[in-house]
Every structure is written in C-alpha cells, then in structure tokens.
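Whiteboard transcription, Tuesday session. T.W. wrote the structure tokens on the left side:
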C-alpha cells in the first residue's frame, strides 16, 4: 500500500486531526505495556478535554432491583378491566343477568305445576318476581350503607337472627314445610330466618376478625367470640332440621377463618371436625341417611329415594349440546319433583343444552374472579374478609347444587343462587351482591376516580354517595381503642371477681368468728375465774 492510496491518506488525516485536538503540550497516548496513567490529569486542559468523554464516578450503591414499568393492556378486554370501576360494573352485570335468567327459568319450569295447583301458570313466577324486586331494593340499600354503619350494626343484626331462629322452633309460630320447621308465614308471604343468619354471620364475623388481627392478638381472642356464636346458630338450625343451611353456615365460617389467616394446622383441625360432624348428621336422621345410600347405590331404590336424581340425569341427557328449546322441557310435566327449585339446573341443561349450562357456570366463574379481584384490591381488612367470604359462600353453594344435580354429591337441598325459586334466598343473595358491589366502589382507584367526578352513568342515575377512603391510621387507632376497652373490661371483671371473693371470704370469716365467740368467752371467763380463785385462796 503506497502513500498515494486514498485509504491511507484518510487514515493519516484522521490521525493528524486527533493529534491536533490533543494539542502540542499534551502528553502522548500510552502504548501497550506502558505504566498506567492516572484517570484525571492535573492539567486543567486535559480535564476540560476529557470531561465530555469520561463521566465522573458515582459513589457505590447497594444492589439494584430491576422494576419494569407497568405494561399497557394489549387487548380491549384488558383495557376495560384496567378502568377504576370495572369490578363494580362486573358485579352489577352478573347480578342482573343471573336474576333475569332465574326469572325466565322459574317461569318455564314452574308453569305446569302452578297451573295444575292454582289454575294459573304465573303463580310461582309472580311470587319470585316480587322477591326479586325486593332483592333489587336491598341491592340498592347495600350500595348506600357506609362501611362503618355496616360494622356497627353487625352484632345487633346477628343477635336478632338468633332470636328469630329460637322463635321459629316454637310450634304455632314457625311453620313446617318439606319436613323442616324453618319458616315464618305472614299473610301468605314466607320468610326463612336461616337465610338472614348467613348474612349476619358473614358481616359480624368479618368485623370481629378484622378488629382482632392474628398478628396483634392471640388465637383465643380470634376464636372465642366467633366460634361459640356460630355453634349456637348451627345447633338452632339443626333442630329444625336443615342440613343444607348448616353446610352453608359452615362454609361461611371456614372462609372467614381462612381469609383471617388462621394457622394451617388449626384450620385443618376445625375443617376435619366439621366434616366429621356433617357425616354424623347425615347418617343419623332417616331421610338424610337414605339420601346418602341412594348416592352410593343409585339402583337400590330407583322409584323411591333415588327417583329425583335419576330424573335429573335423564333431563340433562335429553338436552344434548343445544337443548330442546326454551319452554320445551319434558321433565317439568310432573316427571322431576322440585324442578323450579333444587333441580332447576337440570331444566336449564334440558332446554338450553350444554351450552346454556356452561354459560350459567361461566357467569358464576366470572363472579369468582370479580370477587377475589375486589378482595385483593381492597385496602380495608374488613372489606377483604367480607368480599372473600361472600365469594366463597355463593360459589360453594353453587358447586353443591350443581354437584348433586349431575350426581357428584348427595342431595342436600341447597338452591342455585339467584336462579332457583326461593323468595328469601333470592332477596338475601341480591343483598350480598350489593355488599360486594359496595366493596368494589371502595377500591383505592375507584375512590380516587369517584372523588374526581368519574361517577359514570349508573352512579349518577342512582345518585350513590361518594365512598370514604380507608385510613390505616384511623383504623389502627380504632383497633387500639377496641383493644384498650377489651383489656379494661377484662381488668374490671378480674377486679370484680377478686372483690366478690374477698367479700365472700370476709362474710364467712365473720360468721365463723361469731359462732366461736361464745365458747371462747366462756372459756376465758372460766379460766380467769379459776385463776382469780386460786390467787385469792393463796392469799
């Protein structure tokens, strides 16, 4: 390569330019093998020249944690779920769809029986529609109730339901229906107090466990007020007898203890005890043991105790994939007993097919996702416990109902929430949906959006109040005040017990002293008189 080569000329020019930038007085660049120079030269010109290329060293820092920025939702569904009030709108939509579906299916499944008994195909449907309207009002009321008012009224409500459970057992006050004395009938309208007990136990239990967290109090303080009260409710419902409602209450209690953070060993012990109790109750009564035998041996009595389950399986098989069509069920023509109530899912599978049944289960699955999402996003421990418990309760009842309809569980009599015909059950379930929707409005992002004026059309239509933001400081202060009052009550009880023991001891001692005083006085008089006589005789 000669000097005339243009590439060599370009390299030489570049070297000259870099040498010119360094200046004449700058030291030459070190070559490979020379001693290393200091990073910052004492020459101010070199410092000025190197300031653009070399950044100053930063002080050593601790280990860095790589935090990725929040990713934007990639789909329209993800973008919609990212909205602050998405959970609230989901709860309202699910409640509306299940209620409408329930009314349609109650009309379809009960029309034949209602016409045969009352001469009108709309008797049971009208009653169910009235209770659905009452449930919608209760849904609206639950949206209006502040959280602090709900917590303050939880124990009086639970105590009132215990009184109702006692009254319903009295002959002449409670009414027997389907072998259970569990209804009040006033003016042709029936009310089941056990359904009210479910709501009261869930709200009061969440209030107790949120006030007495496991990291602040002992296990005894968590269990003592809740477990005895729940056992009292269990006993009163078993006396009706109503095993299905007892199982529902057990699900509520287990969900409360689980979400409260009870130790796993203790929780498993309580669950095992509860399962043993359910097995004992299922095998003691005649009709319950017959249902268990029919579950394990369906062919033993196909025209007796196993008739209902067998007809439900026939209805599901008759529906196929697409179903026979709405209103075209054959089982409702007196083939399937309680087609509008306990076994309405069989009618859904027959008329709407596998796709209709899957759609119903999909709605309940969406409710599970929404309820757990609200529980995870809530800042208030009370709302976390209450929302999680309500979700497990409604989902567990759905699982049990569908399970015995398709033959996976023994028949228990639990209804399909919001779908089966049942006035009190429909109204109370809609109230619980309203409580869950109220909790959705108390999510931190939802509170910020509502206070900034993003109410939405539904909120502006109902004129719902702005929710209060959860304050951990205020909650800790209230919890500390509750603990202080509880400790003061315990101290007062101990002092009262000690004072009572002291008074009792003093009274007993005084009584014993009064009984011994005459003998002692007589002995003293005798001894003194004897000694005085002796002294006088000696004198």
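and on the right, the sequence the group agreed on:
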């Amino acid at each position: 390569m000669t000097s005339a080569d243009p590439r060599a000329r370009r390299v030489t020019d570049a070297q000259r330019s870099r040498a010119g930038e360094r200046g004449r007085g700058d030291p030459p660049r070190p070559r490979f093998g020379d001693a290393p120079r200091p990073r910052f030269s004492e020459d101010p010109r070199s410092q000025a020249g190197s300031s653009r290329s070399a950044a100053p060293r930063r002080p050593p820092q601790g280990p860095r944690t790589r935090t990725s920025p929040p990713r934007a939702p990639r789909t329209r569904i993800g973008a919609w779920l990212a909205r602050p009030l998405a959970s609230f709108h989901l709860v309202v939509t699910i409640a509306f769809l299940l209620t409408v579906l329930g009314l349609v299916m109650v009309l379809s499944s009960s029309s034949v029986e209602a016409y045969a008994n009352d001469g009108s195909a709309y008797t049971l449907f009208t009653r169910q529609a009235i209770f659905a309207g009452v449930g919608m009002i209760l849904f609206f009321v639950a949206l209006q109730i502040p959280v602090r008012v709900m917590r303050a009224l939880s124990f009086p409500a639970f105590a009132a339901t215990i009184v109702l459970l006692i009254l319903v057992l009295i002959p002449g006050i409670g009414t027997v229906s389907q072998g259970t004395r569990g209804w009040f009938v006033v003016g042709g309208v029936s009310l089941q107090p056990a359904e009210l007990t479910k709501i009261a136990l869930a709200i009061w239990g969440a209030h107790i466990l949120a006030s007495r967290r496991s990291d602040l109090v002992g296990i005894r303080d968590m269990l003592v007020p809740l477990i005895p009260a729940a056992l009292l409710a269990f006993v009163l419902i078993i006396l009706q007898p109503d095993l299905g409602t007892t199982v529902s209450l057990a699900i509520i209690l287990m969900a409360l203890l689980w979400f409260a953070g009870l130790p796993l060993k203790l929780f498993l012990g309580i669950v095992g005890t509860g399962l043993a109790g359910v097995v004992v109750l299922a095998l003691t009564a005649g009709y319950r043991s017959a249902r268990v035998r029919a579950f394990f041996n369906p062919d033993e009595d196909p025209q007796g105790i196993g008739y209902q389950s067998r007809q439900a399986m026939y209805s599901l098989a008759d529906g196929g994939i697409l179903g026979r069509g709405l209103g075209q069920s054959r089982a409702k023509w007196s083939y399937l007993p309680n087609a509008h109530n306990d076994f309405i899912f069989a009618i859904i599978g027959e008329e709407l097919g596998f796709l209709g049944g899957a759609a119903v289960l999909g709605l309940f699955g969406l409710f599970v996702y929404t309820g757990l999402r609200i529980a995870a996003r809530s800042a208030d421990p009370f709302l976390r416990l209450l929302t999680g418990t309500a979700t497990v309760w409604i989902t567990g009842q759905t699982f049990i109902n569908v399970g015995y309809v398709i033959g996976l569980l023994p028949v228990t009599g639990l209804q399909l929430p919001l779908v089966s015909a049942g006035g009190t059950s429909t109204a109370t379930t809609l109230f619980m949906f309203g409580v869950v929707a109220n909790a959705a409005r108390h999510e931190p992002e939802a509170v910020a959006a509502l206070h900034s004026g993003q109410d939405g059309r539904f909120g502006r239509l109902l004129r719902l109040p702005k929710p209060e933001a959860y304050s951990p400081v205020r909650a800790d202060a209230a919890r500390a005040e509750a603990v202080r009052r509880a400790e003061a009550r315990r101290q007062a009880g101990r002092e009262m017990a000690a004072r009572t023991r002291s008074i009792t001891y003093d009274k007993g001692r005084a009584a014993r002293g009064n009984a011994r005083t005459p003998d002692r006085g007589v002995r003293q008089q005798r001894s003194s008189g004897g000694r005085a006589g002796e002294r006088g005789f000696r004198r």
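Someone added at the bottom: Strands lie at 175-177, 180-186, 189-191.
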